[in-house]
Amino acid sequence: MNQGNNKLTTSWGAPVGDNQNSMTAGSRGPTLIQDVHLLDKLAHFNRERVPERVVHAKGAGAHGYFEVTADVSSYTKASFLSGVGKRTPMFARFSTVAGESGSADSVRDPRGFALKFYTEEGNYDLVGNNTPVFFIRDAIKFPDFIHTQKRHPATHLKNPTAVWDFWSLSPESLHQVTILMSDRGIPATFRHMHGFSSHTFKWVNHEGNAVWVKYHFKTEQGISNLTEEVGTRLAGENPDHHTEDLFNAIKNGDFPAWKLYVQIMPLEDADTYRFDPFDVTKVWSQKDYPLIEVGRMVLDRNPDNYFAEVEQATFSPGTLVPGIEVSPDKMLQGRLFAYADAHRYRVGANHQALPVNRPRNEVNHYQRDGQMRFDHNGGGSVYYEPNSYGGPTESPDSKPAAYPVSGLAASVAYDEHDHYTQPGDLYRLMSEEERTRLIQNIVGAMAPVEKDEIKLRQIGHFYKADPEYGRRVAEGLGLAVPPQL
């Protein structure tokens, strides 16, 4: 906007003669439909809210840059990772998962960790969380899972019975449940938490050689968390605590930063590793695949306008660049469709052309028209392909690397069903004080569940992970461990 021109105009640029009084038939007469300025204001006001995200509705964001600090060109041909010292502009959005856009920041919930890198070969989105695993491992279960996190259709209240009923019938959730109910379930701020790709991706180098990869963003501010009591108090006193903290830190020059590390797995190891490396409810041991430094992310600029930059920012794990590809992770495969489709519904078919989402390099394609097409829409250029007019054509060297597939087309589960080893290992790694808080958080969350049957089923999962784990939860709920365990 031109700050030097203080003349108020309509949305089509005409000067406004009166912005205080509607046009009426006399001083007491009805309002006239010919007051097009009034109609335009009211019609726009009615449409000022795009539908909020189904998940990750409450969030905060900031601009920054990513700088490469170690050479990884032997693993990937991704241009923005091509040399030590290279900087790429980026945008980050942090969020809670289940709550509405007006919900509190300090609830016990995973945090979204969504990053957009504006590379010279197009945008690259990394859509992760602050946890290395997730509750489920097949996208077909995702709508049901999220329904349990939302409000009861009759009472319009949160429903702990639905939450624990689903988890107790989905034992693959136990690893993430253990993390969520631990000290790390409520980060102190967005700045004081790690970020993870959670999913496995594939890196491909210039020679066409590939490896499997997982991302780990380690906060340089250090890990800091809130207790259940402090989180509850902040939810009442300052429900926007995390949003405020991130904005003020950047405003005051205290720029948050994260170091990026990756775990690299040779392709052939996927067939022999003791856990399925594509199962998002599992982690790879860092003893088996140590962390390798890649670079550093710094956030140093706040948005000028929250709606334009944070609310309209769209991320999808399918927004990829040459050198970074997907894995057979069933949850990831579903997200490749769901995320982009959600943005087409929520923001519009042309959401990628919005300033916060627009690639910094030139975009050449044959997509035309659609609601809210606000750029030159391809002008009068050729609008189909193949064509005889020199229009943009494909680049064969950018094709994804091939990998073999086999088997019958069927609804097939993961081969491996050990849902207890890793949660048990995590429990045993905790100090006695951490275990005590974990048990207290679980007992407090499960106490409102209506059916003992559900509680006992979930206690059985805790017990299978570690007998002490199950016994202490049972004692806290005043229940006996099922004898068959």
Automatic annotation (TrEMBL):
EC numbers for this chain: 1.11.1.6
SMART domains documented for this protein: Catalase
An individual GO BP term: hydrogen peroxide catabolic process
Gene3D superfamilies per the UniProt record, alphabetical: Catalase core domain (2.40.180.10)
Catalytic residues as annotated in Swiss-Prot or TrEMBL: H56, N129
Catalase core domain boundaries: 9-393
MF GO annotations: catalase activity; heme binding; metal ion binding
Biased composition (Polar residues): 1-25
Hydrolase found in the keyword field: no
Pfam family, one: Catalase-rel
Annotated region (Disordered), positions in chain: 1-29
Keyword line: Heme, Hydrogen peroxide, Iron, Metal-binding, Oxidoreductase, Peroxidase
InterPro entries assigned: Catalase, Catalase_3, Catalase_AS, Catalase_clade1/3, Catalase_core, Catalase_haem_BS, Catalase_immune_responsive, Catalase_sf
Family statement: Belongs to the catalase family.
Protein name per its UniProtKB record: Catalase
Source organism of the structure: Paenibacillus nasutitermitis
